[in-house]
């Protein structure tokens, strides 16, 4: 029975999948738009620190402000939902404690995401962690807590890590060796030093365009400076068991027709340090010239035929391979972001399955200085003015006491750090009272696995 049929049955039985949304930004708005057209699904409420922003999201996506009502407690949220309206609250815990079945965590804050996920899991609610920053920092711990509480903790379908995990599952299920997997992006080495002040120049966005849309400079900058790529590949590695390369990410410029030629081990004529890894490919050459058939918005998996017969089948059925005929690739040119997010929510409730889940601690994202940092400097996290993230093995992160990018939101520098150098725990002063810090130390105590 497919998901659509299962949703139609819930609709027929007047038992819709009840969803609570935390955060009302662009990703949330995309989900809210499609939720209007999804049978058997009910948005119970939206928790947002700015209630006005939540109302505006509903207005923008066609719900209309009359379809929403303010609610301060879980009881009020339930009453509002029973009346057919969407509850708007500033209290995420009240939403978690309401009658919703699954929580979509879409704040983008590792600290807030951790607290919300833990509260939801303890309240026996499924969690869709759109907040890949929190998943990168603590995914294996949160997955274990969810398992212990018999609920689902899952990556967000529509975001690239979950789509990559789907392709990995396909390749492994049919018996192919996964050689490399990842996504495409815009990349130039100088982007690592981009800030919220310079980001629009790199994107070519005019002041008028920025003013007319829902553009968050720090969020967009995290896409550009390499941090988001590192975070997403960390999630994929920890979800799949694939091991990062020692160099982290190379960001090679690759045409989709050349995936199988380039993304294979160096010993076989490719560029990879080893098979079974992750890589992000650039959509333009280092001189800025475009790739003819780039994968800027998509995801891919490169796999290896297990024997000569499978390789012969590749050739007989017109599959694109490398020169040896042994390596081939599958790719998806686009991801639909929040428009696809409902897949994770209903999959968790109706099938009790995640659309990707961090189960290993193999990869990490360390914080590196965008400029010379001095004692007293305040760090501002992912996509900000001070640090960018690099993918590395969990083993390297632990042995070097590297500060994870997810803990840099409010850290204060106490020792000088040179530009391009990794920050270590002893370089900063952290708030050690947070749930995120406590669980991070729990994860580190496990060691890499």
Instruction: Work out the number of β strands.
Output: 15
CA(first)-CA(last) distance: 36 Å
Q: What general form does the structure show?
A: globular
Q: Quaternary state, please?
A: single chain
CATH topology of the largest domain: Rossmann fold
- CATH superfamily placement of the largest domain: NAD(P)-binding Rossmann-like Domain
Query: Residue-averaged pLDDT, rounded?
Result: 97
From the alpha carbons, calculate the radius of gyration and give it in angstroms. Answer: 22 Å
Total helix count?
17
**Portion in helices:** 25-40%
Low-confidence stretches: none
Q: Can you name the CATH architecture of the largest domain?
A: 3-Layer(aba) Sandwich
Helix-and-strand structural type: alpha/beta
Summarize the entry for a quick read.
The chain is of the alpha/beta class and 449 residues long. Helices cover 36% and strands 17% of the residues. The strands form four sheets. The protein has a seven-stranded parallel beta sheet with strand order 3-4-2-1-5-6-7, sandwiched between helices. Strands 9-8-10-11 form a four-stranded mixed beta sheet. A two-stranded antiparallel sheet has the order 12-13.
What does this structure look like?
With 449 residues, the protein is α/β, with parallel strands linked by helices. The protein has three domains: 170 residues, Rossmann fold (3-Layer(aba) Sandwich), CATH 3.40.50.720; 136 residues, no CATH class; 84 residues, Antifreeze-like/N-acetylneuraminic acid synthase C-terminal domain (Type Iii Antifreeze Protein Isoform Hplc 12), CATH 3.90.1210.10. Helices cover 36% and strands 17% of the residues. The strands form four sheets. It has a seven-stranded parallel β-sheet with strand order 3-4-2-1-5-6-7, sandwiched between helices. The model has no long low-confidence stretch (mean pLDDT 97).
